[in-house]
């Protein structure tokens, strides 16, 4: 195959950050909080770059939808080996309301425009935890989907995908063009080296708006409020295994 | 004038329709048995207050239809049996669900938030041009749902103004519907013509005599502290005494100690057993996301500073290689 891969990358609060809910319950504090590329998106980028290194595809295009800062996330993908970037700028209120349905419409429009043969995404973003965008993009394009992929091999005009399912693994074979979503075990993303970060600055990033793609970002989902989850009562330390088993028996747990 | 009239009557009509909720639960099964999470999804569907129908699609549906017909709260079982539903591929099931939706006009379509439900429902939603809602933990009203975001560190209450509400249900947040006492009618629905763009090849399932991780009453989980796959035997022995399922942290899976379908956490399985015993697990945010709704949490860890102790009801600061065999021994008495 000598096609093009579109990789979706999302800028999210860094996975190690302990998030805080805003006092007015309108959302989560994001200002001044460390952000980075969604871990599953990193895996998607790595897989696309690997396919290029194996000369199975010719070009990797990284796409991100969001405010100005999303460009940093695209630069990270470029430093990992993507060839060029597309930043679909969505900001302010529209960005707050931006969900998988809107993003999948944008990605589907871009996949057609760029004549992509594969769209690779992460299986979920660690902020909204939706696990929807890949499936929805596939639906809008009427392409098959290989979700929660832990192994991907191109076989002519088909893709063999090993998927992580509840009881173990399953293998499917799907036609291309197709949408794949990466699970944790698909690969280990590389670190961008300094020379590659410098090179990435020279790579092209095109800026566009959803309207340029004919996508309406209006949403019919309304977040009424965001709350802290209930806190657990502080527990006790026990000294010995005997104490532990005793306590569990007392409370009827064993 | 005429137009204005028809608009009002349309509005009136849709208002009427909205009062009659009807929910389609997409049943998950393996052609032999209903997957337990479907029972939790049926309970969630019943909370919406309307009529609950279940769709059973597969290559061999008779047994599952029989089971689901007896489930409390199910009014109607829709059956689609065809060879193209082998492997429950979303490319084949989506057109079927859309056709069913066209015929019956459900106000809600849901499934359990398992690998099956997560794979399928967003595809259906996109085809209906509606935004789906993932992994709900509570139903406030027919259009208002609660779900967790940021690895369970915040609860988001969402109002869905879509014409059809498509959602997946967190199994551990809703009781399982009773498998007896129901008397649903069953009816065949027309199968869709195969799309043929995907093909199911094979499955390799982890075989185990232990209870299923997501529905077990007791779960014993191991992390990096176990040091090797062989050492997991300590946990299997303990689990056997407790009739428990065995889980793992991402660290244990990544290190190759155990297969990934045992992973508990934000990106693995969400469990909420009566008793969760975390052994050699530090308690990273991503792991806590998968188990912090457990009724009682026990942590065994030699590091007194491990974050797992902040959520544990009972903490034992000890070397697991000593404490776990001792515990197994104590339970044998």
UniProtKB/TrEMBL annotation, chain A:
The record's GO CC annotations read: electron transfer flavoprotein complex; mitochondrial matrix
The cross-references to InterPro entries, in alphabetical order and at most eight, read:
ET-Flavoprotein_bsu_CS, ETF_a/b_N, ETF_b, ETF_beta_N, Rossmann-like_a/b/a_fold
For this protein, the record's SUPFAM superfamilies field holds: Adenine nucleotide alpha hydrolases-like
User: What keywords are assigned to this protein?
Assistant: Electron transport, Mitochondrion, Transport
Per its UniProt record, what PROSITE patterns does this chain match? ETF_BETA (PS01065)
Q: Could you tell me one molecular function GO term of this UniProt entry?
A: electron transfer activity
- List, for all copies, the residue spans of the domain called Electron transfer flavoprotein alpha/beta-subunit N-terminal: 25-217
A GO BP term here is:
amino acid catabolic process
Does the keyword field hold Isomerase? no
User: Would the keyword rRNA-binding be found if you checked this record's keyword annotation?
Assistant: no
**Location of the protein in the cell:** Mitochondrion matrix
Highest rank taxon of the organism: Eukaryota
Question: Its biological function?
Answer: Heterodimeric electron transfer flavoprotein that accepts electrons from several mitochondrial dehydrogenases, including acyl-CoA dehydrogenases, glutaryl-CoA and sarcosine dehydrogenase. It transfers the electrons to the main mitochondrial respiratory chain via ETF-ubiquinone oxidoreductase. Required for normal mitochondrial fatty acid oxidation and normal amino acid metabolism. ETFB binds an AMP molecule that probably has a purely structural role. The electron transfer flavoprotein serves as a specific electron acceptor for several dehydrogenases, including five acyl-CoA dehydrogenases, glutaryl-CoA and sarcosine dehydrogenase. It transfers the electrons to the main mitochondrial respiratory chain via ETF-ubiquinone oxidoreductase (ETF dehydrogenase).
What family does the database annotate? Belongs to the ETF beta-subunit/FixA family.
Outline the subunit composition: Heterodimer of an alpha and a beta subunit. Heterodimer composed of ETFA and ETFB. Identified in a complex that contains ETFA, ETFB and ETFRF1. Interacts with ACADM.
**How is this protein named in the record?**
Electron transfer flavoprotein subunit beta
Q: Which organism is it from?
A: Betta splendens (Siamese fighting fish)
From TrEMBL, chain B:
Coarse class of the primary localization is: mitochondrion
Q: Which InterPro entries match?
A: DHS-like_NAD/FAD-binding_dom, ETF_a/b_N, ETF_a/FixB, ETF_alpha_N, ETF_asu_C, ETF_asu_C_CS, Rossmann-like_a/b/a_fold
- State the UniProt keywords alphabetically: Electron transport, FAD, Flavoprotein, Mitochondrion, Transport
A Gene Ontology molecular function term for this protein is: electron transfer activity
What are the residue boundaries of the Electron transfer flavoprotein alpha/beta-subunit N-terminal domain, all occurrences included? 23-204
Co-factor binding comment = Binds 1 FAD per dimer.
Q: Where in the cell is it found?
A: Mitochondrion matrix
Binding positions (FAD): 224, 249-250, 263-267, 280-287, 301
Supply one GO BP term: fatty acid beta-oxidation using acyl-CoA dehydrogenase
One GO cellular component term, please give it: electron transfer flavoprotein complex
Reported cofactor(s)? FAD
Which PROSITE patterns does this UniProt record tie to the protein? Answer: ETF_ALPHA
Is Transport a UniProt keyword of this protein?
yes
The record describes the protein's role as: The electron transfer flavoprotein serves as a specific electron acceptor for several dehydrogenases, including five acyl-CoA dehydrogenases, glutaryl-CoA and sarcosine dehydrogenase. It transfers the electrons to the main mitochondrial respiratory chain via ETF-ubiquinone oxidoreductase (ETF dehydrogenase). Heterodimeric electron transfer flavoprotein that accepts electrons from several mitochondrial dehydrogenases, including acyl-CoA dehydrogenases, glutaryl-CoA and sarcosine dehydrogenase. It transfers the electrons to the main mitochondrial respiratory chain via ETF-ubiquinone oxidoreductase (ETF dehydrogenase). Required for normal mitochondrial fatty acid oxidation and normal amino acid metabolism.
The record's note on quaternary structure and interaction partners says:
Heterodimer composed of ETFA and ETFB. Identified in a complex that contains ETFA, ETFB and ETFRF1. Interaction with ETFRF1 promotes dissociation of the bound FAD and loss of electron transfer activity. Interacts with TASOR.
Sequence similarity: Belongs to the ETF alpha-subunit/FixB family.
Name the UniProt record assigns to this protein: Electron transfer flavoprotein subunit alpha
- The species this protein was found in: Betta splendens (Siamese fighting fish)
Q: What is the lineage of its organism?
A: Eukaryota, Metazoa, Chordata, Craniata, Vertebrata
């Amino acid at each position: 195959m000598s096609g093009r891969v579109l990789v979706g990358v999302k800028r999210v609060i860094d996975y190690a950050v302990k998030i805080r809910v805003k006092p007015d319950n309108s959302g989560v504090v994001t200002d001044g909080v460390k952000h980075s590329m969604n871990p599953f998106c990193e895996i998607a980028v790595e897989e696309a770059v690997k396919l290029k290194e194996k000369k199975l595809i010719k070009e990797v295009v990284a796409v991100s939808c969001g405010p100005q800062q999303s460009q940093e996330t695209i630069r990270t993908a470029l430093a990992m080996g993507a060839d060029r970037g597309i930043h679909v700028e969505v900001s302010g209120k529209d960005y707050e309301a931006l969900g998988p349905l809107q993003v999948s419409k944008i990605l589907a429009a871009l996949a057609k425009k760029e004549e992509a043969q594969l769209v690779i995404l992460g299986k979920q973003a660690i902020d909204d935890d939706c696990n929807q965008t890949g499936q929805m993009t596939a639906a809008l394009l009427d392409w098959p989907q290989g979700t929660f992929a832990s192994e991907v091999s191109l076989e002519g005009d088909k893709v063999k995908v090993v998927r992580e399912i509840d009881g173990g693994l399953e293998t499917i074979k799907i036609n291309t063009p197709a949408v794949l979503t990466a699970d944790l075990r698909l690969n280990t993303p590389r670190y961008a080296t300094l020379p590659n970060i410098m090179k990435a600055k020279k790579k092209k990033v095109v800026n566009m708006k959803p309207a340029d793609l004919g996508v309406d970002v209006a949403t019919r989902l309304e977040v009424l409020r965001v709350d802290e989850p209930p806190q657990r009562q502080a527990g006790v330390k026990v000294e010995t295994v005997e104490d532990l088993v005793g306590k569990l028996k007392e409370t009827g747990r064993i | 004038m005429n137009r204005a009239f028809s608009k009002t009557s349309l509005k009136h009509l849709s208002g009427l329709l909205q009062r009659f909720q009807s929910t389609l639960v997409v049943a998950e099964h393996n052609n032999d048995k209903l997957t337990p999470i479907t029972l939790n999804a049926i309970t969630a569907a019943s909370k919406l207050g309307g009529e609950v129908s279940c769709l059973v699609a597969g290559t061999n549906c008779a047994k599952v239809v029989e089971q689901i017909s007896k489930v409390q709260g199910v009014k109607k079982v829709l059956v689609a049996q065809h060879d193209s539903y082998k492997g429950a591929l979303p490319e084949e099931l989506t057109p079927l669900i859309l056709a069913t939706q066209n015929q019956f006009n459900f106000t809600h379509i849901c499934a359990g938030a398992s690998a099956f439900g997560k794979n399928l429902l967003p595809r259906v939603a996109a085809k209906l041009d509606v935004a789906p809602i993932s992994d709900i933990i509570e139903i406030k009203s027919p259009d208002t749902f609660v779900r967790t975001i940021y690895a369970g560190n915040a609860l988001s209450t969402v109002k869905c103004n879509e014409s059809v509400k498509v959602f997946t249900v967190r199994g551990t947040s809703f009781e399982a519907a009773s498998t007896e006492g129901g008397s649903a009618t069953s009816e065949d629905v027309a199968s869709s013509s195969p799309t043929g763009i995907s093909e199911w090849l094979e499955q390799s399932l982890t075989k185990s005599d232990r209870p299923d991780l997501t529905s077990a009453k007791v779960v014993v989980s191991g992390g990096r502290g176990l040091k090797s796959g062989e050492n997991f035997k300590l946990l299997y022995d303990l689990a056997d005494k407790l009739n428990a399922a065995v889980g793992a942290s991402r660290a244990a899976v990544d290190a190759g100690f155990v297969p990934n379908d045992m992973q508990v956490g934000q990106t693995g399985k969400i469990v909420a057993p009566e008793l969760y015993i975390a052994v050699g697990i530090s308690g990273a945010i991503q792991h806590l996301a998968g188990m912090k709704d457990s009724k009682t949490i026990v942590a065994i860890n030699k590091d007194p500073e491990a974050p797992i102790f902040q959520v544990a009801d009972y903490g034992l600061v000890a070397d697991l290689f000593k404490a776990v065999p001792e515990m197994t021994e104590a339970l044998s008495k």
